[in-house]
Recover the amino acids of this structure.
């Protein structure tokens, strides 16, 4: 790129054999001509000066930027482009840093420089500033349009009922799901309180589903949470959790996760049944994850823990272990760990034929947390029937896995727990079988 420093107004930039002035840039599509009603020729210098380029770049960090605006060193948009004698353009701070490291070459071409002067690229700087200004104005206009539409929809909701209310809620849900400004507008204008008021004993599932889908995307304060924890509202959510579409069930579980976290939940068997159905549905992994997160919160309350055991939650979780990913495994083992500390839970685990084999397979396989939870569960089952447990566990390869834990870089507490369980197994199993299953005869002897 060649520049005439004596006359900045007639400055041209060469890139790929084309002159990068404003007219050519618009014609070649770099600036895009008209963007959301903002025409390049309408962007005046006073308007550009009112907005800081750095702030515009930060607010538009998710959009795709023309490659000609990108500094080859940092791969970030340039704010103060300067050109070397080789014709290559860089962000001033980046090329100065390159020089400070002792380089006297062009980073792109690796040519030695015959002149170390940096020529301000005013044309490219103006192109960059104009392009970002266009995008910023378009974004601002979209944001204002979205906010206005949200307010209109909130006002409409106060006047309509039936299918019209459902359609209005659906449109509001779609806007809120996409635009951050829409979420803030709804919250700032009393939308959370109003939408929450739509949930009640006489609310149709269609209205309830759409209202829940909106609320799950909003920031709820303590008052909003307290309002939504009213029994009649929770009752509707439980109904929707059990009877809605998969998307609705997931939204409902997410909302209840927010509501129940740190609050006393309603001990409803219907709620637990709905959560377990989510966890058991292998076709929808997102539902499994959100279901397990909710189950973790619920299980922390002892009364509900016993209810989960009563409706058969323990064998369901045990049978699902081989199908879970690492995140779901950690959640499910946490839940089973809590349930195993309840006598009825430990007994349910003992009665499930796959408890020991499934848990042994998970030792040293996923994470230290998973290993810790699995060991705790195995201990609880072991204490119920030492001899029966030992025979099954050793045949499943427990002894060898425990030796791996002891010899690994796990925490001292986990190693101690493994050593004690290994010793317990050796005392309740014939030495020949125990040693052969360990596959480390000489070490043990």
């Amino acid at each position: 790129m060649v520049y005439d420093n004596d006359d900045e107004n007639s400055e041209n930039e060469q890139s790929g054999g084309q002159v990068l002035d404003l007219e050519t840039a618009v014609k070649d599509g770099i600036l895009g001509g008209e963007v959301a009603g903002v025409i390049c020729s309408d962007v005046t210098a006073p308007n550009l000066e009112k907005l800081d380029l750095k702030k515009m770049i930060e607010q538009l960090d998710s959009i795709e930027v023309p490659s000609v605006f990108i500094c080859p060193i940092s791969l970030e948009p340039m704010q103060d482009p300067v050109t070397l004698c080789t014709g290559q353009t860089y962000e001033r701070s980046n090329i100065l840093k390159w020089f400070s490291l002792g380089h006297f070459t062009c980073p792109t071409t690796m040519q030695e420089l015959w002149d170390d002067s940096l020529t301000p690229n005013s044309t490219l700087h103006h192109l960059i500033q104009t392009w970002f200004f266009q995008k910023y104005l378009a974004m601002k206009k979209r944001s204002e349009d979205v906010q206005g539409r949200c307010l209109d929809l909130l006002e409409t909701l106060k006047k309509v009922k039936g299918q019209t209310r459902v359609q209005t809620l659906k449109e509001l849900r779609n806007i809120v799901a996409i635009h951050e400004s829409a979420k803030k507008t709804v919250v700032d204008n009393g939308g959370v309180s109003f939408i929450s008021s739509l949930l009640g004993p006489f609310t149709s599932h269609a209205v309830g589903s759409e209202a829940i889908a909106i609320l799950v995307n909003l920031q709820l304060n303590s008052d909003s949470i307290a309002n939504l924890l009213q029994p009649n509202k929770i009752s509707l959510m439980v109904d929707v959790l059990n009877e809605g579409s998969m998307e609705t069930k997931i939204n409902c579980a997410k909302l209840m996760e927010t509501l129940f976290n740190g609050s006393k939940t309603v001990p409803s068997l219907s709620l637990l049944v709905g959560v377990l159905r989510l966890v058991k549905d292998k076709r929808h992994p997102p539902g499994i994850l959100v279901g397990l997160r909710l189950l973790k919160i619920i299980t922390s309350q002892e009364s509900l823990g016993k209810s989960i055991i009563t409706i058969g939650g323990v064998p369901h979780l045990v049978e699902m272990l081989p199908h879970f990913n690492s995140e779901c495994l950690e959640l499910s083992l946490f839940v089973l760990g809590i349930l195993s500390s309840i006598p009825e839970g430990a007994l349910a685990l003992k009665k499930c034929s796959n408890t020991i084999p499934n848990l042994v397979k998970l030792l040293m396989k996923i994470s230290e947390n998973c290993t810790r939870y699995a060991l705790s569960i195995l201990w609880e089952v072991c204490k119920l029937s030492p001899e029966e447990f030992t025979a099954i566990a050793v045949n499943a390869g427990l002894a060898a896995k425990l030796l791996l834990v002891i010899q690994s870089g796990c925490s001292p507490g986990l190693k101690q727990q493994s050593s004690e369980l290994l010793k317990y197994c050796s005392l309740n199993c014939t030495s020949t079988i125990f040693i052969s299953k360990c596959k480390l005869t000489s070490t043990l002897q």
Summary: Residues 1-23, 32-46, 431-436, 439-445 have pLDDT under 50 and may be disordered. The longest helix spans residues 122-157. Strands lie at 14-15, 18-19, 34-35, 38-39, 81-83, 89-91, 119-120. The chain has 25 helices and seven strands.
